[in-house]
Amino acid sequence: MLERLASWSFRHRWTVVVAWLVAAVAVTMAAGAFGGDYADGGRLKGTDSDAAYQLVQREFPAAVGEEATVVFADPAGLADDRPAIEAYLAQVRSLARVAEAPSPFDGAGSISADGTVAYTSVTFDAADGAALEQGALAVRDAAASLRSTGLRVEFGGWWYQDGGVPSSELFGVGAAAVILLLAFGSVVAMGLPLLTAVFGILIALAGVTLWSAAVPTPDFTVQVASMIGIGVGIDYALFIVTRYRTALAAGRTPHDAAVEAIGTAGRAVLFAGGTVMISLLGMLLMGMAFFQGLAFGSSSAVLIAMLAAVTLLPALLGIAGRRIDRLSIHRRRPSLGAGRRAETGWHRWSRLVQRHPVAFAAAGITALLVTAAPVLGMRLASADAGNDAKGTTTRNAYDLLADGFGAGVNGPLLLAVEVPTPTAQAALPALVEAVRATPGVAFVTEPQFSPAGTTAIVTALPTTSPQSRATEDLVHRLRTDVLPPLAGGDIVAPAGGHLVAHVGGATASNVDFAQLMSDRLPIFIGAVLVCSFLLLLVVFRSVLVPLKAVVMNLLSIGAAYGAMVAVFQWGWLSSFLGSGPGAPIEPWAPMMLFAIVFGLSMDYEVFLLSSVKERYDATGDNTEAVVEGLASTARVITAAAAIMVCVFGSFVVGDVRSIKLIGFGLAFSVLVDATIVRMIVVPATMELLGARNWWLPRWLDRLLPNVHLEGSHGAAAPERARIPVDVG
Questions:
Q1: DSSP string, 678-708
Q2: How far is CA 455 from its chain centroid?
Q3: DSSP labels for 253-303?
């Protein structure tokens, strides 16, 4: 069926190209008409912080809006600046989308002891992200006249963060063009993977907008889907075009070469794409609605890339025909004659590894384990604004508040307390005093009651920063040691006249988020590993090959985790990368890195092993199959990995630490996987195992469906299996 599809696409090439053009336009128009808004957060159902949020939302609806912090500073003191500040806040209160903007001169604790720093929280009543951002920017713009007087005004909140996710699409495409040109040596051959990827990306990004109307979709899904779509779209087309050129060199007609390329390399692409989709859809197992749109949007980009590879690409090959090597930049190689093959550097490298398999395997695995060792000290927590780039308004606001009030003012804890009876209300002062006496608490406000008098909120300021482990310990200590005895031993549900207290606020929510991610990450990783193992078991009809693939991918990802800890948590190379030391690893980063890199690693694994398997089925010689398989795919894998390293590496130049973190981790993991794992450990271990690589119990062989990556061009034609593949 796949070969018939390739043949039809080749023969009806212009129809297929027009159909893809129409599809791109139609999906883009549909996205503009029916697309939804992106989500900027989500509930942490079942957590104590979510219980606090729900209680405050019900009893204090005006207190749960999004907030921005405005900080005023004057080394000479703020007394003379009060009229200007009051006038500015009056202007802010008149702005659309602003619900509250109290004066710091009217509230206790909003002015530092030395009178040089003051702050206020501006609350917005907008419901969607775009309106919130407009309101926040209006608050900032209104301060221009205030700043002109010499008063220092800084702003805290995600709206004011400089930078963001870099627009790496153009950079990625540009890097891919250079790398493909060097790999193929032909402008025409270079253009086909790029054109295929661009078509896929146009449809995939519109698809993300459509997904946002159906499920909660974070705004960065666009960048993630774009990044993945570019990577796999170019990778898949690169693999197929390589096989097409090899078939042409072997004397096939353009039609037969395209059919053979799709029937072999295209089949591998479908299974490789399947593993990527499994990995990305595994994010649904995290149990958080916020990740639904991310999982569906990014996996849709992979699906579209797969469809483009097996339908649009054969049509483009039909248009290019034998002209695929036109506009060459490489010097033509002399013909070696019939029956002779070129001996490349990759052949020689593979044989070197096979002559010393134990040494190479031990060295590669040791390097991976040493690099992964720091993961044992990984701490998952949300980094605070103290890690923003120096000179940015969010960093300035954080530092001014920390200097004037202590670091804990940047992450207050909100205690939501149910007081169902007068008896319970009488016990509230004891709760406040107990919290105030807790080590690690710097300041506690007096209770503020709801209109019905059945709920009170109390704000507690820690002595330490929001990202500090001490603050995390304080949250747990309040929940387990301080509040339950005062609440009658039941912190979840009211019982009689007892108080019921919940610890909420952004800092407590971040603690709960990190805990949820830590608890569910093993489930996510385990499910993806099992599904990928089963898929590779069916594809390669071997127990050890998929087992090694899973282990090797875990090692490369573990090495990336270790490098992230060393650089971003321990501070190695922090000055070079522009990131401060001592901050934890973002809770979502390990999940995101695993979902993306595991899928891409399986791409490279399937490309390599499918080539090895094809030659092994044709010859029965494991050693020669590994040599030819590595030599035929090494350049393809290297080019594909180089493209992804460039795309991911562009994230490191951003200003936001979390973007640097994930960009570095992704680039490092792909680099390690394409070098140490694919070029050293995999060939060495396959040489050590020999024919046992392809062992499969007979009873299991009878149970598995009959699937062949090589299609009708593999074992049935052993003379073709010996043809070398050279993308140069």
A1: IIIIHHHHHHHHGGGGG---HHHHHHS----
A2: 40
A3: -HHHHHHHHIIIIIHHHHHHHHHHHHHHHGGGGG--GGGHHHHHHHHHHHH
What pLDDT, in 10s, does the model give residues 264-280? 888 888 888 888 898 89
Q: What is the mean pLDDT of the chain?
A: 84
Q: Is the dihedral of CA 682, 683, 687, 691 positive or negative?
A: positive
Q: What pLDDT was estimated at residue 717?
A: 38
Distance (Å) of CA 291 to CA 95, 512, 590, 615, 643: 34, 16, 14, 41, 26
Q: Which residue from 436, 508, 438, 501 is spatially nearest to 466, judged by alpha carbons?
A: 508
Q: What strands, in cross-sheet order, belong to the sheet with 152-156?
A: 98-100, 117-124, 67-73, 152-156
Q: How many angstroms separate the CA atoms of 594 and 415, rounded?
A: 35
pLDDT tens per residue across span 346-388: 888 989 998 999 999 999 999 999 999 999 999 999 988 888 8
| Cβ-proximal residues to 436 (8 Å cutoff; 6+ apart), any chain | 444, 460
CB 409, CB 125: distance < 8 Å: no
Q: How far apart are CA 721 and CA 726, in angstroms?
A: 14
CA distances from 251 to 248, 525, 728 (A): 5, 46, 17
The three-state (H, E, C) secondary structure of 389-413, written as one string: CCCCHHHHHHHHHHHHHCHHHHCCE
Side-chain-side CA neighbours of 92 within 13 Å: the count stands at 30
Tell me the average pLDDT across 299-320: 93
- Give percent of the chain with pLDDT exceeding 90: 37
Three-state DSSP class for residue 711: helix
Average pLDDT, stretch 281-301?
88
Tokens of 363: 């060295």
Query: How is residue 36 written in tokens?
Result: 């939804």
Q: How far is Cα 142 from Cα 502, in angstroms, rounded to an integer?
A: 37
CA-based end-to-end distance of the chain: 30
660 is written with which tokens? 């640097």
Using one digit for the tens of pLDDT, what is the confidence trace for 665-698? 989 999 999 889 988 998 999 889 888 888 889 8
Euclidean distance between CA atoms 701 and 537, whole angstroms:
10
- Where do we find the tokens 């406040």? 432
Core vs surface per residue 151-171: b (16+ CB within 10 A) or e: bbbbbbbbbbbeeebbebbeb
DSSP output for 478-525: IIIIIHHHHTTT-SSS--TT--EEEEESHHHHHHHHHHHHHHHHHHHH
Tokens read off for 57: 């939302």
pLDDT of amino acid 704 = 81
Structure tokens belonging to residue 227: 């990044």
Q: What is the pTM of this model?
A: 0.83
Question: Half-sphere exposure of 244 toward its Cβ, with a 13 Å CA cutoff?
Answer: 32
Range of weakest confidence among 160-169, 546-555, 591-600:
160-169
Contacts of 223 by beta carbon, 8 Å cutoff, 6+ apart = 165, 167, 168
Helix 292-307, helix 267-281: angle, nearest 10: 180
